[in-house]
């Protein structure tokens, strides 16, 4: 029995596969993915976006490979990337083989859509030869015609049946390094499909709500959909799909995992909404701190509370804290205890310095494995 059983999440036990160096499934941390939106054949632009995503903490990045130019570019992109690259392929078997040869760690492709048996065999062989895993990506918006006719409309059963049809093809070729997604833009449909799929297969699941919308609406929708799956223990890797900067997808993904205690990357700011009692401008301070601390990957908690109504209580539970007081200054908390006073003007620079020092100390103590260390708190 854990100390706080109401926080426990029993993760569904899946078998583990690898996307390049990143384990997915089993007891691996839930990985966060995003996708580039540059033109893939513009190698420099694509690499620079991948670097931004890596900086934000992305574990895996996907790039579209619609034509031969892009699979040619993929070679240089894979070489420059520190994270494994997933090649997004639709239908075209030659692109899949080229992407595997170019060093893609994973192919996002539905084997049932590749074409004749020979093409399917060639793609699977290329994946085996080059150590590529695959993601079967079922999407409610592009379900096979015969399933739509059978079920009348996209529904969880149709999506799971589609996934299982693709799985069968891979298994018939003795290929087992795959994960599956069953995404829909409708939260109910997507969640129900994942719940049914989780019962039907033992492979890892890539979860997400597709075409979720813009930054705010998409974040809310994804948090409800992905959040409820994660809370039920379902999901081994995730992508938040936003019509926004791909870096936002990574940040939102980590915030979801942090909210559920599943991963702990970066600074978590606990802050009050502010009101007339605030001793400093809470909203502006939090916005500035979020920007200035975005580069910190060590798991550190920081409370920024406008006044003593909730300040001391929240500070007790965080690594560092600031609570507004009177006369233009407030109290800095260290390890839950009031430590020293600081003026409102100097407080942001001061807190950034304290967080960076703490991050440095954590790095000095655990230099080897950032994923392991972020999960050890
Ligand atoms: S902590 Fe204080 S300033 Fe913040 S919302 Fe509550 S009462 Fe208002």
UniProtKB/TrEMBL annotation:
PANTHER family per UniProt: 4-HYDROXY-3-METHYLBUT-2-EN-1-YL DIPHOSPHATE SYNTHASE, 4-HYDROXY-3-METHYLBUT-2-EN-1-YL DIPHOSPHATE SYNTHASE (FERREDOXIN), CHLOROPLASTIC
Protein's name according to its UniProt entry: 4-hydroxy-3-methylbut-2-en-1-yl diphosphate synthase (flavodoxin)
Enzyme class: oxidoreductase
Example of a GO MF term: 4-hydroxy-3-methylbut-2-enyl-diphosphate synthase activity (flavodoxin)
InterPro entries assigned to the protein according to its UniProt record, in alphabetical order: Dihydropteroate_synth-like_sf, IspG_bac, IspG_bac-typ, IspG_C, IspG_TIM, NO2/SO3_Rdtase_4Fe4S_sf
GO biological-process terms attached to the record: isopentenyl diphosphate biosynthetic process, methylerythritol 4-phosphate pathway; terpenoid biosynthetic process
Presence of keyword S-adenosyl-L-methionine: no
């Amino acid at each position: 029995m854990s100390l706080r059983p109401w926080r426990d999440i029993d993760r569904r036990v899946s078998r583990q596969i690898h996307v390049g160096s990143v384990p997915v499934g089993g007891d691996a941390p839930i990985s966060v993915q995003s996708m580039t939106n540059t033109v893939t054949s513009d190698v420099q632009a694509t690499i620079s976006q991948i670097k931004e995503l890596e900086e934000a903490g992305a574990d895996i990045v996907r790039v579209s490979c619609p034509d031969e130019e892009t699979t040619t570019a993929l070679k240089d992109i894979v070489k420059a990337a520190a994270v494994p690259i997933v090649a997004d392929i639709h239908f075209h078997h030659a692109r899949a083989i080229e992407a595997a040869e170019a060093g893609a760690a994973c192919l996002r492709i539905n084997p049932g859509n590749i074409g004749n048996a020979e093409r399917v065999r060639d793609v699977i062989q290329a994946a085996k030869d080059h150590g590529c895993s695959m993601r079967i990506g079922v999407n409610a918006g592009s379900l096979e015609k015969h399933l739509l006719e059978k079920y009348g409309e996209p529904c969880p059963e149709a999506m799971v049946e589609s996934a299982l049809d693709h799985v069968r093809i891979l298994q018939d070729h003795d290929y087992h390094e795959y994960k599956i997604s069953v995404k829909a833009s409708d939260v109910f449909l997507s969640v129900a499909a994942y719940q049914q799929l989780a019962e039907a297969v033992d492979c890892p699941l890539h979860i997400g709500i597709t075409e979720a919308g813009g930054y705010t609406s998409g974040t809310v929708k994804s948090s409800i959909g992905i959040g409820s799956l994660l809370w039920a223990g379902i999901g081994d890797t995730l992508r938040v799909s936003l019509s926004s900067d791909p870096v936002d997808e990574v940040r939102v993904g980590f915030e979801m995992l942090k909210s559920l205690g599943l991963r702990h990357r970066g600074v978590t700011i606990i802050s009050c909404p502010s009101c007339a009692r605030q001793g400093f401008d809470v909203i502006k301070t939090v916005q500035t701190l979020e920007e200035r601390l975005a580069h910190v990957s060590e798991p550190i908690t920081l409370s920024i509370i406008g006044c003593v109504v909730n300040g001391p209580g929240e500070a007790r539970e965080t690594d560092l804290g600031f609570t507004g007081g009177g006369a233009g200054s407030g109290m800095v908390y260290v390890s839950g205890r009031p430590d020293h006073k600081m003026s409102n003007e100097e407080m942001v620079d001061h807190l950034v310095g304290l967080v960076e020092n703490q991050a440095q100390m954590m790095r000095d103590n655990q230099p080897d494995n950032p994923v392991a260390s972020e999960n050890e708190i």
